[in-house]
Amino acid sequence: MTTQASAPPSTKSQALRSYDVADFPALTGLEEEWRFTPLKRLRGLLEGAASNQSAHWPAHGYGPLPEGVRIGSLAKDDPRRGSVLTPVDRISARAYGESDLGLLVEVAREAVVAEPVIVTVEGGPSDVLAFGHTFVDVAALSESVIVFQHVGTGTLADNVEVAVGDGAKLTLVTIADWAPDAVQVQHLRVKLGRDARVVHIQVSLGGDLVRQFTSVEYTGRGGEAELYGVYFADSGQHLEHRQLVDHSVPDCRSYVGYRGALQGESAHTVWVGDVLIRAEATGTDTYEINRNLLLTEGARADSVPNLEIETGEIAGAGHASATGRFDDEQLFYLMARGIPESEARRLVVRGFFAELINKIPVESLRERLGDAIEARLTKAGA
Predict the structure, then answer these.
(1) Rounded to whole angstroms, how far apart are CA atoms 224 and 25?
(2) Does 50 or 296 have the greater pLDDT score?
(3) Residue 193 to residue 216: CA distance in whole angstroms
(4) Burial class (CB in 10 A: 0-12, 13-18, 19+), 325
(5) Cis peptide before 58 (omega within 30 of 0)
(6) CA-CA distance, 189 to 213, in Å (whole number)?
(7) Which residues does 253 contact at the CB level (< 8 Å), separation at least 6?
(8) What is the pLDDT of residues 222-267, one digit of tens each?
(9) Model confidence pLDDT, tens digit, residues 59-69
(10) CA 309/CA 288 separation, integer angstroms
(11) Cα–Cα dist 161/15, whole Å
């Protein structure tokens, strides 16, 4: 067990980390890390008892694997388990302790994987609490694209550990395309080796409540992390995204760019981007930006960028956040050329998301996400 700082932390570097649920006090909803999250909608993930049925899900499906990739089970005593991620909250600690067999995805050393690896995570009964654990082991000097797509219903808390070896390149795509009543709370942590690079594209469309926390740490010089997010909240949905990029090694780089659209009464999104540059992380270059587009009245977007800098010897650091409605000039330009207002609005939204969706290196997924966004706009009469 690893525990840090029993008192409320004043900085991200002092935050409590532990594998033991008992080390985390019960939540009240007043905590800074949880003040945006509707705790009553978590369906017992904080305190409820897991059912025996939870051992049967989440289920994982995948097709034939390309050369250089192996998928198997992650035993509870596998020494890799917990080597990347130490829980930073009560639900993540529950998932660590109560998940049994996990999923193991391995990419061989120096493998250049020709095809994307697509894993489908299938939900179970919504009244059953489930806890999951995934370890992605990307060996040194390899190149790969891995996709996790979440479908069905369910109530799931899970941890995902991603180890990217020295000189390796990984594009990781995670898609929350849950049924409307699903609940998921996830902590995904990436550990980067020397000169390693990760591009993570996070897409959130489905679910009643989805809360995803992504954290990154560097273990050698030259590490690069690019974190992108696309989310579209409909009426009643709560979609929450948090990042912590922990620069503790010199000469590393990070970029965070998230974009969201909201429509419908009580649609709510939360984006909190934290970047920590420790005293020893000289030469760091980092930037984060979040943009939100409000399509209707009654929707709410909370956006909180944070920079914590402990050294002045950096290459660059900045952040930005913007939330607004349709650009009237863009609409006027399109409508002046004979495009009906409803079609003009759809074009603006598609253009808003296009840059990030095009970063997904799987054409079928790009088309599917474009169709899903189009369907939501059509449903709302945009």
Answers:
(1) 35
(2) 296
(3) 11
(4) exposed
(5) yes
(6) 8
(7) 223, 224, 225, 284, 285, 286
(8) 999 999 999 999 999 999 999 999 999 999 999 999 999 999 999 9
(9) 899 999 999 99
(10) 14
(11) 19
- Supply the pLDDT for residue 5: 39
This prediction's pTM: 0.94
Angle at 174 between CA 220 and CA 169, to 5 degrees: 30
Bridge partners, residue 262, by sequence: 233, 294
Q: How many residues does the chain have?
A: 382
Distances (CA, A) of 249 to 118, 164, 217, 223: 32, 15, 9, 9
Tokens representing 323 are: 């939330």
Q: Are 270 and 299 in contact (CB under 8 A)?
A: no
Query: What does the block give as tokens for 364?
Result: 């079928």
pLDDT tens, residue by residue, 101-130? 999 999 999 999 999 999 999 988 877 889
Find the farthest-apart pair of alpha carbons in the chain and give their distance in angstroms, rounded.
65
Taking 70 as the threshold, does the pLDDT of residue 92 lie above it? yes
Q: Are strands 197-204 and 102-107 parallel, antiparallel or unpaired?
A: unpaired
Q: Annotate 103-135 with DSSP letters as a single string.
A: EEEEE-TT-B-SS-EEEEEE---TTSEEEEEEE
Residue 230: name the closest of 373, 376, 121, 375 by CA: 373
